Amino acid sequence: MPLTGVLAGKTAIVTGGTTGIGRAICLEYLRQGATVAVNHLGLEKDQVHLDTLVDEAAALCKDNSDACKLVHQAGDVREPDTAAKLVALAVEASPSQRLDICVSNAGICTFAEFLDLSPDLLTDTVRTNLDGAFYVVQAAARQMARSQSPPGGSIIGISSISALVGGGLQTHYTPTKAGVNSLMQSTAVALGKYGIRCNALLPGTIKTQLNDKDLEDDAKRTYMEGRIPLGRTGVPKDMAGPAVFLASDELSGYVTGAQLLVDGGLFVNLQ
Fold first, then answer.
1. How far is C-alpha 177 from the chain's CA centre?
2. Coiled-coil stretches, from where to where (predicted)?
């Protein structure tokens, strides 16, 4: 069966790609014909997520295994070598020996009272969400700009609605997501001459492993849903289509330095 999809023949990397938003994006990229290299921490507790992702990928790519396929690698995005190794893995797996798409998704969010917030939690959050994003974007850009001909590609930073609004229990988290927005704006300027587009995706309230306990509170969930014009919290799959849009040169070839809110209308209803 011939390869089809708007990302047919493209190669992508996705950090934090075995759960939540990263997983949904990974699967949709595969469905759209891409080869995807996924980063994960390699923790024993996460093995079941990796196993099911591998099985789903095999089913999606069974007729196009030479082009559409999943590869994966363990590593901590806080370490620069992790990004370089992930890019190398993707290029090796790529049918064209290129890297076309980078999704910097890996992140952590632990709610904490500002007055009690520990230096260790601040350091872990900044190093994962901001340092990790910088390292993977830089590694991807080096490949896209200097190591392939013609140069070019799409880089997507997963930010958050929290980059635009305050959060009393997120004083360590919201600055990192604002930093991702700023990183995408600055890299859009720095990398435009190489044909590399850089954009941020800003999820609203998306039910993932980061907030599932919070959303188990019926009263809190009902309150949150009441503030969302579309009347529901999001699910990871809601992020997949927008991530395909920003990845595709055909669909968003003149979009760079942009911030795309995917929040069911929550932000405009917070005013």
1. 12
2. none
Q: How far is it, in rounded angstroms, from Cα 200 to Cα 263?
A: 13
Nearest partner of 22 among 158, 155, 153, 115, judged by Cα: 158
Q: Is the pLDDT of residue 118 over 90?
A: yes
- Structural Rg of the chain based on CA atoms: 18
Q: What are the angstrom distances between the C-alpha of 271 and each of 66, 165, 201?
A: 49, 10, 20
The rounded mean pLDDT for the chain is 93
H-state helical runs in 61-170:
80-93, 119-126, 132-146
pLDDT given for residue 65 in this prediction: 59
How big is the CA angle at 39 (ends 196 and 24), to the nearest 5 degrees?
Answer: 80
Active site residues: 159, 173, 177
Cα separation of 173 and 110, whole Å?
Answer: 8
Written as one letter, the residue type at 164 is: L
Helix or strand (DSSP H, E) at 261: strand 259-262
The average pLDDT across 253-259 equals 98
Distances (CA, A) of 178 to 7, 10, 214: 29, 29, 22
Return the structure tokens found at 176.
């990192």
Burial of 237 (0-12, 13-18, 19+ CB in 10 A): middle
**For 39-85, what is each residue's pLDDT tens digit?**
999 998 889 999 999 999 999 988 765 678 999 999 999 999 999 99
- Rounded to two decimals, what is the model's pTM? 0.94
Q: For residue 153, which phi and psi values (nearest 5 degrees)? A: 155, 180
Helices 20-31 and 47-60, axial angle in degrees (round to 10) = 20
Query: CA 61, 27, 99: angle at the middle one, nearest 5?
Result: 80
The tokens of 117 are what?
């917030």
41 close to 256: Cβ distance less than 8 angstroms: no
Supply 255's token pair: 């979009």
